[in-house]
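DM from R.C. (forwarded with permission)

"hey, sorry to bug you on a friday — could you get me a structure for this? deadline for the figure draft is monday and I only need the backbone to look sensible"
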Amino acid sequence: MAVLILTDAPAVNSGVVARLVGAAQALPGPIEAIVLGPEAATAATDLAGLAGVTQVGHCQCDSPVPVESWMVGVVALLQQQQPSHVLMAADSFGRDLMPRLAASLDLNMVSEVQAILASDHFVRPAYAGSVQQQVRLTDTPCLLTLRPMGFAPAQSQSAVDCQALSLFMEPTDSRVLSHQPLESGRPDLGQARVVIGAGRGIETVEQFALVERLADNLEAAIGGSRSLVDAGLLANELQIGQTGRIIAPQLYIAIGISGATQHLAGIKEAGTIVAINVDADAPLMQMADYSLNGDLNDILPQLIAATEK
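My reply, with the result:
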């Protein structure tokens, strides 16, 4: 029985699927993949060159469609192919489609998987990331959404053949009016090696400009806490935390973030954490590997000067 990866083109292009393939290598059986949605054919060609992948299919549509449109066709495909596992990224597509598949197939699923211990044994976070939960799932197929940054990306291989698939797309009462990818000119928040997080301590546009200068010097992505999103200084898509993005950079620099529980849940997989805050007793200052206690207006210019190329 095969391990089947379901995905869309953005997840292939961002490198997320390379990590899903790396995760699938820990499971028995050949690895197959299906790309759904706009630009699926092009993305499938790239996916076909990842080590371990034995078969790639794609079902392309001209424009984005509601996830429910795929349901009948994908359920029929799973019933026909009978894979041992179905993997998706824990992104907006996976979080939307996988629970629907589980309900339609009357199966359990495990979400936000961080590690695969055996073919039926998985690790996921619980209680806002404060504990690690081990789960055994005996359903066939095992339905899993994975946090991709917890897995090493697959290497390259000679590309396998790609096959165009024809899946039934069910008409729905809803439709996607527009699809506008976020283009910031910076590394993707979920894939970046270095991330700078800004919080309540950033109160003005001028202070946020200092954060941007430091990010430019470090070639870093910028994210932040809910307070900066509410203040209009940061896009919703860049919120870090339990209700936002889960990140796992090698280096996370938190500027003016106290460390609410929901924010800490989004950075637990970060490598090295540096916190800058005027409050030495802030939770994130206690959690960080390195803490700089002081006024960010004094500290940031020094960091910018030290990192100028």
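R.C.: lifesaver. The chain has a mean pLDDT of 92.
me: no worries. Residues 92-105 form the longest helix (14 residues).
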